[in-house]
């Protein structure tokens, strides 16, 4: 009974976005309170819970495919109640099952905040035109509705971002063909940006930093496949609807106050995607706004985008690390929500667009196109690495100095 309860709790945390380390710590703590000393062996598709010093074990199927902060919060609260003695052990399994089956954010809220988040990213990336922002918001809202509709037919986590990206590309191409907007690149990639699997990238990087090499590589591979499908879906939808591919130039930066407000709106939208309770949203919003102000200031001082992202992520992680455990929330989801607008979607989309253009031209492609592809790809990789390092370092230092008291 104790081993089964511990395995269930660990599987729920692992499957819904909690970091591997916090999952192991929570399971070990729960097992100790229930009278069993356990060792948790996490793998991509299952957790093996072994009795320490024994051959007895329990295998719990679990894949870390989703992120649901509401369920992580509920499961962690049940674990605390069991450990504090306020919840009888006999009722622990049913309480955990109820916590793990909480509904996600409602479909209207999901679609609304998808629109808000994509439009906010449009502002951050340089457009203040009302028509552009309405097109971006409408595309993201339609994509969100498509994702929810598809979730009723398929449990495959790759189909939803692919189809939503197809919608974004098609809307952008239609806007260009009907001359509704000249900012077709922004209209295409801003709705795609809300699909980026940031928590999976961050959790994978944390696993690598903790030398869980196989699990970390698998997490990053899963995130990479999603990013590839987002790019492919957006480009295919764009070309299928008659759009003309062309690499875009970065827009001039927006004023600080506009940038900060838009960043806060983007954070709120991603908190909704990850089913964060309303009462907890102000914290990541405040962190995200402060981080964006730091990035804006750093870039205005003359540093490049990667260094600006590093500064912002160091600040966001330093503010988030001491708080997420007290709030019973997964670090990766909260931290990524705070800095989502720093993801180099513009450069990734430009690199993908350039590669498609390169294939269409063939051997006669100009050197300038090759240079643009290399610069966009290198810049995107540099920003992602800077973000991962900036988010991970303060968290690991905090855990080193203040280990979880379980």
Describe the 3D structure.
The protein is mainly alpha-helical. Helices cover 70% and strands 4% of the residues. The protein has 16 helices and 3 strands. It has helices at 2-15, 20-33, 69-84, 92-100, 107-124, 130-151, 159-177, 184-193, 198-209, 213-240, 256-273, 282-300, 305-327, 331-339, 345-361, 367-401, and strands at 38-42, 46-51, 57-61. Strands 1-2-3 form a 3-stranded antiparallel beta sheet, with helices on one face. Helix 1 packs antiparallel against helix 2. The two termini are 21 Å apart. The relative contact order is 0.11.
- Approximate shape: elongated
Total number of beta strands: 3
DSSP summary: helix tally = 16
Approximate strand percentage? under 5%
Strand and helix order: HHEEEHHHHHHHHHHHHHH
Structural class, by secondary structure, is mainly alpha
Strand count, sense and barrel status of the largest sheet are:
3 strands, antiparallel
Gap between N and C termini? 21 Å
What integer value in Å does the Rg equal?
22 Å
Low-confidence stretches are none
| Approximate helicity band | 55-70%
The overall pLDDT, averaged over residues, is 88
Strands in their spatial order, largest beta sheet: 1-2-3
